[in-house]
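Record type: monomer structure entry
Structure origin: computed from sequence
Chain ID: A
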Amino acid sequence: MKTLILFIFILGMTAMAQTNNLNTEAMKDTTVKDPGSNEPILLGYCTREAFQDTNYSWWFESVYDMFEIDSTTADSLRDKLNNVNITIVMGTWCSDSRREVPRLFKILDYLKFPADKVSILTVGRDMKARGNEAEIYKIEKVPTIIFYRGTSEIGRIVESPQLSLEKDMLKILKG
C-alpha cells in the first residue's frame, strides 16, 4: 500500500514538473530579443500572466498600482459591457503600451470584466507578431485596444486615449 501511495505521489509530481516545463517552453517561444534594445520582448498571443515575468512586471505592476480609476465614469461602463470582447495589440517595448495596458487592466479588474473576453497580441517594432496574426487588425500604432460587440468591431483606442481610458471606453460602448 505504501508503495502504491509513493508511486502515485511520484507520478503526480512528474506530471506537475512536465506542466511547468511546458509553460516555461511556451514562454520561451514568445520571448525574443528586440533588435532595437537587445532586451527581451513578447511576440504573439499571450495572457496577462506573461506580465508577471520580471522582464515585464517591473513596469506593469508599478503603473497598475499607481493608476487611479475614474470610478464615476467606470461605474457607468458596467451595463454597457454585455457581449463585449476586447483585443489588445501592444508592444512590450513600447512606452505607450507600458503606460496604457496596465491602466486598462486596472479598469477591467475594477469592473470584474471576465479575463476570457480579453485577447492580447504582442508585436515587434515592425507591428508584426510571429506569424501574420497582426495583419488582420491593421495596426499602425500600439497599443491599439479594439472593442467588439459579438463579432463586429465597435471602436478602438489607438496609442493613447483622447480624454481618458474610461471616457473613451464609454464613448465607444455608447455608440
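Annotation 1: The longest helix spans residues 2-30.
Annotation 2: Residues 34-174 form a domain with the Glutaredoxin fold (CATH 3.40.30.10).
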